[in-house]
Amino acid sequence: MGRFVKGSVVVVNYFFTDLSGSKRRPAVVIADLDGDDTVLCPIVSSRSDRYSVRVSSKDISGGSLRKDSYIRPNILNTLDSSLILYEMGKLTPEKMAELSIRLREILGL
Predict the structure, then answer these.
(1) What is the pLDDT of residue 109?
(2) Which of 1, 27, 45, 73 could form a disulfide linkage to 40, CB 3.0–4.6 angstroms apart?
(3) pLDDT confidence of residue 19
(4) Paired strand residues for 40
(5) Three-state secondary-structure class, residue 15
(6) Which domains can be identified in the chain, with CATH numbers?
(7) Is residue 28 within 8 Å of residue 7, measured between CB atoms?
(8) What value does the mean pLDDT take over residues 80-88?
(9) The whole model's pTM is what?
(10) What's the rounded Cα separation, in Å, for the pair 93 and 34?
(11) What single-letter DSSP state applies at residue 58?
């Protein structure tokens, strides 16, 4: 499978925090690191909080979401790229800029 770039919207199997199972979920690539690691933020259809960035199908070029959702930049995951099942599109530059601002706020950068 090819490399995924910052802003790619991908699908991965996310494990529950208690490791009791997993769920197939979209995520946004935040960084494609040297080697096999990729940093992601999950996209969820509920559970928004003050850090969430609302996203809809109009914010994804080359793909769509089943319903309006939320990117959770306060939940960063580093996964081996081989765990990414497929790419479903890319965030628009405008939405990626909004997400980048929120990440900088969270990380204090």
Answers:
(1) 82
(2) 27
(3) 80
(4) 29, 77
(5) strand
(6) 8-107 (2.30.30.110)
(7) yes
(8) 92
(9) 0.89
(10) 23
(11) G
Q: How far is CA 62 from CA 9, 42, 87, 97, 106, in A?
A: 10, 19, 10, 18, 29
Reading the block at residue 49, the tokens are: 């909080």
CA distances from 45 to 35, 68, 73, 85 (A): 31, 7, 14, 19
- The token duo for 8 is 């790619």
CA distance 106 to 71: 13
Residue with tokens 């930049």: 73
pLDDT in tens, 10-56: 999 887 778 888 889 999 999 988 888 999 999 999 877 899 999 99
Residue 50: count other Cβ atoms within 10 Å of its Cβ. Answer: 6
Q: Which residues, 6 or more positions from 47, have their beta carbon under 8 angstroms from its beta carbon?
A: 70, 72
